[in-house]
Each structure stands twice: as structure tokens, then as C-alpha cells.
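To make the argument concrete, we let one protein speak, a sequence paired with a row of C-alpha cells, as a model reads it:
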Amino acid sequence: MISISPDPAHPRGGYALLTLPDGDLAGETTQVAVFDNYSERYLGEAGWQPVKVLFGPYDVIREGGQARLVIGPEIVNQIEEYANVKLFVGTTEQDVSWPDDVVPAPGAAKIGGIMGTTLKDEAPKGTLTAKIPEPEPVPEPVQPENAVEPAAPASAEGPAGPEKQGRGGTLIGLLVLVLIAAGVAYWFLAMDSVPEPVAEPVVAPEPIADADNPCGIDALSAIDGFAAQSDALRGCAGNASADVALGLLERAAAAGEADALLLFGTVYDGQVNADVIEDQIGLTFDDVPATAAEYYARAVAAGSETAGEQLAALCDRMSTMDDTLAQGAVADYCGN
């Protein structure tokens, strides 16, 4: 059976830990393929495709009767939570629902999710939204009651009839409307032609060089051995950030250094405090006993005696817990 969980060495995401029974996976390395049961396509480097692609090879770590391997952003960043996929790990295959706690690395662009849909572009219905105002009707002049209407000039055709006077007034009214409409249209066109102000580019300040900072990642990484690095890090309390501390810790833990594995277990163990590292530098996580137990066990295997004492105390605490992760950690790391 294949189980999927976040890789504790990368708490910010982008990596997943695949665990199988030791007998289900042969060799020191293996390859992984992913099949989307919904679209019936395989995962590739550029998204989902009809041809099967094998990622890897990945190193296989064997501990306590289990085989583990870590897959990275090349797979994790392309799968959405709860996706129904089939995993191929070596010769083992299994349908799984991708867990929601295995997340992409922050800031990483996902190449393509399984359940993604294509958005339809809707063209704008119109660029002119203002309504042209209708001209107000011109009031007819009021004639005084006693006013004498002037006599119409005589013409060869006879006196002007009401029909001719009505036609002239209509033509004048139409001409007024045309002029008003033309003026309004010109106003809108003039408004559209006014260029928008262009904002001046903001020049970002040049980053401060880290090479001359004794509490920066470059200077601390240059120190030989994580034990010496952690001593220097504690001396930088108030000047070193939690990101710097986490970067040093991840590198050393990936290299299998016992002191780094012990410190990783400590920051996940809510009953143990890493003094300056947690209180002043601020590198601390929520209490996750199962993850702390795994790091303690790895530190013990790397030769740490302190890790064995802290693991024993943690095993006593987890023995009273009834959640699945804690009980699984007891079975994996607390056996005598």
C-alpha cells in the first residue's frame, strides 16, 4: 500500500513522501509515474499527455520495514488536492486521492491541474457606455392677446399656407438636432483621445549584499559542520531571521547530520523548546508528534544520544493519543 504525506524536510511545500512496505519495492532507486483517472492521461514534464512518462530515478530509503522516497515539485506542483490518480512506484500501482496537506511550493507556477477547466473569453459588449442626452424641446413663442399678426408678404404664388410653414419649422428643428448630436459625439471622441498618464517606473532599491553580513545565510553556511553553524546562529539572535535558520537546517538535515535532525525533531515537539532558535530567532512549528518522532529516530540512527532520550519521552506521550498518525508513529519508531 502506498501512503502519501508531506515531506517534513520541506515544510513550505513542493515535496511529498511516498511510503511502501519494504517488500513491495526493490532496488536502491525507483521511478514514479502518475495517471489521471478522470482525463485518462499521464503526467509529463509539460502537463498531462497520452504517453506514459517515468519520473526519477529517486533514492529509496529503508527503515523499520518500510521503503520511502521523496518526490519533488516536478510532480507535486502539477496535481491538485483530492485529484483521483493512479500512482506507479516501481512495480507497484495504486489508485489514490491526492491529500490536501501535500501542497505546491509557495510561489511556484503550477504547470496544469487535473481538474482545471478552460475559461471562455467574453468580448466586451460595448466601449461607449455614456448615453447621448436628448435635446430639450424648444418652447414656442407666446403671442400677446392683443397683438396684431403682421400681414404676410404677397407673392406671385399667393399667401403662404399652413403646410409650408410647418415644413420650414420641421427642417429647422431637424437641423438643430443634428448639430447637437454632432457636438456631443465630438465631445466623446475628444475624451477618448486624451492619453492616460503613464506612471513612472518604480526603481527597486538594490539588495544589500549578504557576503559582509556575519549573520547572513552565506556567512553561516561557510562554517564547517552544523554543530558549529548552530552555535553561530544562536549568537546571531536578533540579527538572523527564521528563514536563514530554516535554510541551514534543511541543508544539514538533507545531508543526514545528527544535530540538524535532532533540532528538526525539537521544533516539531511541542513539549521541548529549542531555546534561542525558537524563542528569539522564531523558527518553530506546531506540535506534530509523529513528525518529531521520525526526525528523532533518524537522529538516533545518525548517532545522537540526546535524540534517543527525547524520542523515549515522546513515545510515552504518544502512547496516550488515539489519532492515526500518532499511533502509526508509535508502531514505527517506539518499538523495543
About this structure: The first strand starts at residue 3 and ends at 6. The CA atoms of residues 78 and 110 lie 5 Å apart. The radius of gyration is 39 Å.
